[in-house]
Amino acid sequence: MGEKKKLSLAAQIFIALVLAIIVGLLMQNAADFANAYIKPFGTIFLNLVKFIVCPIVLFSIMAGIVSMKDIKKVGIIGGTTLVYYFCTTAIAITIGLIVANCFKGFFPALTTTDLSYEAPAGSSAMDVLVNIFPSNFLKPIVDANMLQIIVMAIIVGFAIILLGEKVAKTVEAVNRLNDIFMKCMDMILKLSPIGVFCLLTPVVASNGAAVIGSLAKVLLCAYLCYLLHAIIVYSIAVATLGKMSPLKFFKGMFPAIMFAFSSASSVGTLPLNMECTESLGASKEVSSFVLPLGATINMDGTAIYQGVCAIFIASCYGINLTLGQMVTIVLTATLASIGTAGVPGAGMVMLSMVLASVGLPIEGIALVAGVDRIFDMGRTTLNITGDASCAVIVSNIMKKREAKKG
Ligand code: ASP
User: How is 194-227 classified by DSSP, letter by letter?
Assistant: First the structure.
């Protein structure tokens, strides 16, 4: 029954996606209308998702930690997750750099005079680290700062475990609150086909022509890397470490993939991603911890995009990057992707950090800014698929450990 219901939501989202592309293409001359009258409904839907995502992250992580009843176990899951996230992101950016270097000869030579891009106040690696820790109990929720919410949930979750039986009623309350917010999410997600349609139609209407424009080859290069990373890295990881057929994995992830593609927000996709991974068999305690963390810090698609754009921008300026500079890009893009918020367009802001690290002109971002949304749809899709692969893998590892313990 559950399976049937999910399939039908997936089918609905898929139909919405196809309709949005068709309607968007038909509305290319009426892009302003699409932006003025269709997009707001998409924004309403995305707002509802954002509204529910903070309590979901807070309570699902807390409930997940509390249900483990053991700080050591949280440490093992957290440690395994972080290692997987770092490794896959470093591989992603390496793939991005290799493929972009092969494509370099085909990239268009756009003129770089008269470019201007106002880089927002950048954040260094140390800023990223310091900003993980909240200095106020409410501000993380008010600002929807996911990383800080995760830290809050971990601290409070640990305290609950340490207090044990004394706070049994609080454990019950945390679980029930988690149930309530999950139910809210369930209700909001029922609207996702409408949300997907209203979000995607204006994008296609405004960008349809740009896709076949001068940046097509750069976009193609990025999408090729996204695909390669998903097909090679995630398939191998899921099959070997997660003991799951990659086909089953991608099929089960389809609703979340379509949602991420149209919303360009990892955080917005989080609730649906949780549903998909759990229906794939990932345990709730693992997915409720691994996915919110991933939606915040694990961005393989963003890392690929930053690598491809760095090579493209360098080639437009006639700069050949050295091997040392490429290694620097691997390091900074990994860090930049951690600091990237899971919302539309955030990866482009962090691109300035990557460009600056190897002395490339930040104004170069203006070259790709026009079609950022199209890059973003693909990179977000990869970002959330990476998180889900981790949930499946860590779940399998933990199940095995438990079976051994017996
Ligand atoms: N939109 C991306 C995400 O939500 C972040 C980015 O802009 O790269 O995962």
Answer: HHHHHHHHHHHHHHHHHHTSTTHHHHHHHHHHHH
